[in-house]
Amino acid sequence: MATDLAACCADAEARIAELEASVAAKGASKSTLALYGQVNQAIMAWDDGYERDAYIVTNDASRTRFGFRGKSEFGADLSAIFLIEIGVRSINSKRSDQISTRSGMDLRRAWWGLASKSLGTVQVGRAVTSLEEITEANLAGTQRGGKYSDVEDSGLGLRLRSRSGPALSDVAWRRLIKHTGNQPGEGDAQPGIRYISPTVAGFFASVSWGADDMWDASIQYLGDISDFTVEARIGYGQSKDSSDAPSIECMATNVANAPNDADCQALGGSLSIMHRSTGLYGNVAGGWFEDRNVKYAPIFAGLDAEAESSFFAVEAGIQRQWFDIGPTTLFGQVYRMDSGANARLTVAAGDAINAIGADASISSSTVKMWSVGLTQDITSVDTKLYVFYRHYNADVVLAGAGQIQASEPLEDLQILMGGALIKF
Description:
This protein is mainly beta. It is built from 1 helix and 21 strands. The strands form 2 sheets. Strands 1-3-4-5-6-9-10-11-12-13-14-15-16-18-19-21 form a 16-stranded antiparallel barrel. The longest helix is centred in the first third of the chain and has 27 residues, at 2-28.
């Protein structure tokens, strides 16, 4: 009995020692987990030339979201990291039209990685690629309300309307901007691997690869030069990915007589400069895109399909702290997009903008926008108030039935949006 009791006590003591060691190890570990997010809701009033209305929307320029980020330090210069981020759209400002609205949730990011101050960072999973936001340098921060270079978020889910009659087209405004609305030279999130270099003298580089067969690379700079703060970005990428949502989306995919499923390339960049003492600033962005397979699409057979697309955008303004609550920004924006042929979109024979009378695709299009607005930061509660007006106009050329012809004349689109972004 005494022997059994001694063995029992020895076993209990060993288990207690293991538990104490485990608790001590957890107490000494350098692991963190943080919840973060933001809410960005706005009133979006629109006038499409025939009808007017207003929606309460999630502003997709920087939509409502929440996420978790974690970090575990292995030593002084190496950490394991992860991030999971969910987007929330309660009436999406870029996917809702005159007839229907769209809401829902989406997985924005889900990746793990390793971070080293001296070696850089590697991310594996659904992460932003090197071209993401490459055309959006903006030291004034106005892009959280309305982007000067990525304009589809502000009401371009609305459908085109012909001046010839009240009927709506099935084609949304954003389909005139590289099909989905992503600018030439701009990337997005997709599954893959990304490496981000350490920052040296304000510069850092990034390179990404994503399945199925997309890669891009970029160099960015942020720093002070004399009396100015400067942010500069430039990147290039190629894609042979024919899936529904690659970072670089080609305009002709899975064309039967093309040499591969997809083949396109993109170049983009942006520059933002702010004079620190006066708050005067300027932003400029541009991008170029080429699709090598669009010429093989049957709809363009015998026609000179335009393979290239390009855009440029400018914003200028002033940011000053006129009120104690935080900086105020007044700004103006100008944007132009010249888009090439789009083999992924069919404009039906009976569509309101189709002047050919047979099924057609977009041979080329031009979208122009000008905008004025203001933002007001409330620094103490990490909030940005914004209001802006935008005026869009477009010209479309269609290809079908062996001919190229301008679409029916299009009504202009006006957007007035005001809201708030609150971070937590």
